[in-house]
Amino acid sequence: MLKKIPTQQVQLGMFLQSMEGSWLSHPFWKTKFVLRDQADLDALLRSGVPAVWIDVSKGSDSSSDEPSAPGSTNTDIAEALPVEAPEIRVEEPVAALPPPSITPARAARVSLGSEMEQATLVMNRSREQVTALFGEARMGNAINSEQCQPLVEEIANSVARNPSALISLARLKTKDDYTYMHSVAVCALMVSLSRQLGLDEQTTRDAGMAGLLHDIGKMAMPIELLNKAGQLTDAEFTVIRSHPVRGYQLLKESEGVPATALDVCLHHHEKMDGTGYPQKLKGEQISLLARMGAVCDVYDAVTSTRPYKAAWDPAGSIQRMAQWTGQFDPLVFKAFVMCVGIYPVGSLVKLDSGRLAVVVDLNPLQLAAPVVRVFYSTRSKLPISVQTLDLADPASGDRVVGRESPQDWGFTHLDEIWRKG
């Protein structure tokens, strides 16, 4: 039996089923576990998470009979409460999706360094166009999806040449332009994932359009909530959770928006175990593109700096996401890892030689052997001459033995290293 209690009433021995508020801010890599460690309890109490759901059939119960989580009664917030999620026909998922495999490139793949200049130009144009597009939406104007098609095409072409270039640049967005550039990043990730799954080019373009428009409902949210640096109250989080419905309504009123974009906009926060929102869809009830959108949306969110949290490193984000049982489609997530890599560009890794390096490009056929730039010796605890190694080449004489946390080493300049030509 599930029961919601204020975080301050949590005790050791309770089975944590889920946590209220933004999941990005909670202190654990997973939920659904018995709380046994005092350090974990202390971290939860400090986290700002307002309330949790416990399963009293799997762990201890609380002493209070009917506890309720604290929340805000702010009048302005209450006026912005969401409407009911509309009933729409969910796109039928691909029935027999084959196991993900490395698919042949559809365009000649170039190195990340070679694509960086072009990707930078695409990013700059994207920033201008998406800012203008979302500005129109904030004023309540209809979206012209035809104006988005050339931008999706540009992004798709850059991703075809080297997916990591644009995806990695988009990760460097600031917290001020997060809402706009997050949509560009999810567009690029959706295109890359579509190709990895072997979807046809029209479906790939539709997926890119869906990624570009998936968060348009954020434009109906109060700006002060989008930019709030601290923990959201229950009432504020309820408002933010209405953005898929608000986005769906906005796109529905616009002309020419593909049904796939409507679907992904409404359902990119659904989870495979049925605990997502707004309709609590489960498993195959969630379309393939919405399942893809869920993974792409979360990855870019956790690897980006937000008003209320610092970015997680790319490799650490993949590791954490892999532990969130029930959230993502395992098949889609496996294909996604093949897109961005076990060690995505920008990851800090330790080599067998004892050197630290930043991943600067992927080897699609050998994901555990990326191209890296070494710059530090863990043995001497000193910087060393920067050197680029292709670990897929036996002549490199080295290999990755694991990921490292940049925070643990105090490195704040890794982006400068991997962006160098």
Automatic annotation (TrEMBL):
<protein>
    <submittedName>
        <fullName>HD-GYP domain-containing protein</fullName>
    </submittedName>
</protein>
<dbReference type="Pfam" id="PF13487">
    <property type="entry name" value="HD_5"/>
</dbReference>
<dbReference type="InterPro" id="IPR003607">
    <property type="entry name" value="HD/PDEase_dom"/>
</dbReference>
<dbReference type="InterPro" id="IPR006675">
    <property type="entry name" value="HDIG_dom"/>
</dbReference>
<feature type="compositionally biased region" description="Low complexity">
    <location>
        <begin position="57"/>
        <end position="72"/>
    </location>
</feature>
<feature type="region of interest" description="Disordered">
    <location>
        <begin position="56"/>
        <end position="75"/>
    </location>
</feature>
<dbReference type="InterPro" id="IPR021812">
    <property type="entry name" value="DUF3391"/>
</dbReference>
<feature type="domain" description="HD-GYP">
    <location>
        <begin position="157"/>
        <end position="352"/>
    </location>
</feature>
<dbReference type="InterPro" id="IPR037522">
    <property type="entry name" value="HD_GYP_dom"/>
</dbReference>
<dbReference type="Pfam" id="PF11871">
    <property type="entry name" value="DUF3391"/>
</dbReference>
